[in-house]
Specification:
By secondary structure, the chain is an alpha/beta fold. It has a single domain, classed as Dihydrofolate Reductase, subunit A, CATH 3.40.430. It contains 7 helices and 10 strands. A 10-stranded mixed β-sheet has the order 1-9-10-8-2-7-3-4-5-6, with helices on both faces.
Length: about 230
C-alpha cells in the first residue's frame, strides 16, 4: 500500500501506520470508528457496504478489530450486514446496541462467539427479550427509555475495556459524535460516485459540538483512500 501522508512512501506496512498509542481519556475508554464511504459521501450501495469495500479495506477491517477490546455496532447493521463473531479465537467480543432486542439469538453472532456477545440495551426494553439476551450472551443496561452512549461507553470501561471500535451504523456513530466521544476516525474512501439519498457515515437527530479532527495518515491502493484522523 502506498503512503501519501505524512511522508510519501511507495510501500508501507499497514499495521505500523495504525499502531497506537491509544491512551484512554479520563473516565472512559478510547473510542475509534471505522467507516467506508463513496467519494460523494454515501455510506452504502444498495443498502449495504460491500460494494464500497476492497481487499485492502477488508484487511484493514480485521486489523483494526485486532487493536480493540470490544467492537460496538448497532442492531440494524448486525441484521443488514449479517454479522458473525470477530474472526479468530482471540477476536474481541461484539457489543450490539439495541432497544428493541429484535435479534436472531440463533445466529452465528451468538452461537459461535469465542467470547460472549454483549447486548447493550435500556430499562424500557421488553422483559422477555431481555431474559433471552441474558441467556444468549451478556447484557449491559445503559439508560432508561433508550440506550445512552455516555453510559454504555462508561460501563464498558468499568469492565476493563480500554479501546472501543465503533463500526456503525450511521445513527450509532452519529450518537458517538454527538456525545463528544470520537477519538479516532478511520475512513476508507471508495472510488465510486453513488448519488441517491443513501445515509452518511454518521447521522441522526441529535447534534453536539463538532469534533475537530486532524489527519495523521493517508494511504492509497487501487484508487481507494485510507484516511486516519485523531481528535484535533
Amino acid at each position: 500500500m502506498r503512503q501519501l501522508l505524512p511522508v510519501p512512501l511507495p510501500d508501507v506496512e499497514v499495521a505500523d501506520v495504525y499502531a497506537g498509542p491509544r491512551p484512554a481519556p479520563e473516565g472512559r475508554p478510547w473510542v475509534m470508528a471505522n467507516v467506508v464511504a463513496s467519494v460523494d459521501g454515501s455510506a452504502v450501495v444498495g443498502g449495504r457496504t460491500a460494494e464500497l469495500s476492497s481487499e485492502a479495506d477488508r484487511h484493514l477491517f480485521h486489523l483494526l478489530r485486532s487493536l480493540a477490546d470490544v467492537v460496538l455496532v448497532g442492531a440494524n447493521t448486525v441484521r443488514v450486514e449479517g454479522y458473525g463473531p470477530a474472526r479468530g479465537a482471540g477476536g474481541p467480543p461484539i457489543a450490539v446496541v439495541s432497544r428493541s432486542l429484535e435479534l436472531d439469538w440463533d445466529s452465528r453472532l451468538f452461537t459461535e462467539a469465542s467470547a460472549p456477545t454483549i447486548v447493550v440495551t435500556c430499562t424500557a426494553a421488553d422483559a422477555a427479550r431481555r431474559r433471552r439476551a441474558e441467556e444468549a450472551g451478556e447484557v449491559i443496561v445503559a439508560g432508561e427509555d433508550h440506550v445512552e452512549i455516555d453510559r454504555a461507553v462508561a460501563e464498558l470501561g468499568r469492565r476493563g475495556v480500554a479501546v472501543v471500535l465503533c463500526e456503525g451504523g450511521p445513527c450509532l456513530l452519529g450518537e458517538v459524535v454527538a456525545a463528544g466521544h470520537l477519538d479516532e476516525l478511520c475512513t476508507t474512501v471508495a472510488p465510486l460516485a453513488v448519488g441517491g439519498a443513501g445515509p452518511r457515515v454518521a447521522m441522526g437527530a441529535g447534534a453536539g459540538t463538532p469534533v475537530p479532527l486532524r489527519l495523521v495518515s493517508a494511504l492509497e491502493e487501487h484508487d481507494h483512500l485510507f484516511l486516519r484522523y485523531l481528535r484535533g
